[in-house]
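Below is a complete specimen:
___
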Amino acid sequence: MTANVRITRRATFAAAHILHRSDWSDDKNREVFGACVTDHGHNYVVEVTVGGSLDAETGMVVNLKQVDSVLRREFIDAVDHRHLNRDVDFLRGVIPTAENIALAAFHRLEPHFKPARLLKVRVVETENNAAEVTAE
């Protein structure tokens, strides 16, 4: 019997953002986004879960070094110490909520783990706030 196994790699990044819609009034933006309508930053945690069958030779689903390398190259290097609204091409025109950051990370990382499969990206924005995107 072949078992599917999951592994999770964690990384951190620091970034600034602002939550607002330019087509809304200041009052509506404040009503919807609260204190996040002004420039501020977070120390984010991102967790990437990859799954698949174990390789008989290595005993691994995928080498964690590869997961870390892909995570850093495709996502962390692009967002770390950046302003998410202004400095990150793949977030341009997107309100950088935790949900949208997780979705963008998932789309950027998903093609890079074959034959394993990206199963989940979790972005923790604060100790009280996290967003997850999972494979269907």
